[in-house]
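Q: I'm writing up a methods section and want to include an example of the input and output format. Could you take the sequence below and give the corresponding predicted structure tokens, formatted cleanly so I can copy it straight into the document?
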Amino acid sequence: MPIVKLLAATAAAALLAIPAAQAAQAKYPEKPIRLIIGSAAGSGPDIIGRMMAERLYETWKQRIVVDARPGAAGAISAELALAAAPDGYTWMMLTSQLFVASQVLADIKFDLARDFQSLSLIGTTPFVLLANNQLPAKSLKELIELAKKQPGKLRYGSAGTGASEHLSGVLLGHLTGTSMLHVPYKGVPQSIADTLANEVQITYAVLPAAFPHIQGGRLRALGVTTAKRAALIPDVPAIGEVVPGYAMNAWYSVVAPTRTPVAIMNQVSAEMAKAVKEPAFGEKLKSSGIDIVGSDRAGLDAWRRDENKRISELVKISGAKEKK
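A: Here is the clean output for your methods example:
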């Protein structure tokens, strides 16, 4: 075939392929999507993930299957997500917990910045310092005093070694000169259960998971980890009011494995941001203790860069990083 005809045929084929590719993308999603959560069922990420899955089903009429895979402070979920085909049908919830774990744990087999692309930042929320009702300390100030009198005797639970809740406790100890025994669990629901049973005296939990227990009077909230008080529980002080310089926050975002088609990532990001900013769904998130954001992909990229710097500094200050 003459070169001119060959080039013409190639160009024509390319032009025909464009509408076909666009049509394929327009049909997305054509099957259920898997959203991998690195926390236990009933945890904050699980609650928010299921809320988002239900809302997007209304738009796409395709199920989003929330796959809770707790363990190693969320690191297991990242490994599972990377093992899946990057075709747009596997997402992962990237949270502050996994972000902290990636900098604290020594044996991490992935790079969050390299291996996962941003979709959307859903929102932020505080951790709550919860206490068993039998604990003599009725306030954060009294807890600190008690911990100083009984070094190493008070036990606090977290979602696992290297999790944000763990770092929250390490930071409190660092800034107050106290020592409490850390008891790691597979997830927040387990640490809350043992706090209720008084196996551990206190625990840190995200507000969506903590609120029902606070509201029901089953556990006492001594403080929130964010710099300001939470609108949902305004009578609970920020820990920073008692311990200057203390601040930790939780956040929920969704990412996809690198090499996922850009057009699909853009579509998912736009739908998530739109959903979060809708009055009805936004209020539903707020009622669970979420300060909504609903960012685009670039917004989450910027957030991740800022958080990487902030968490790195906190890990360095706390001395929580494991040695290889």
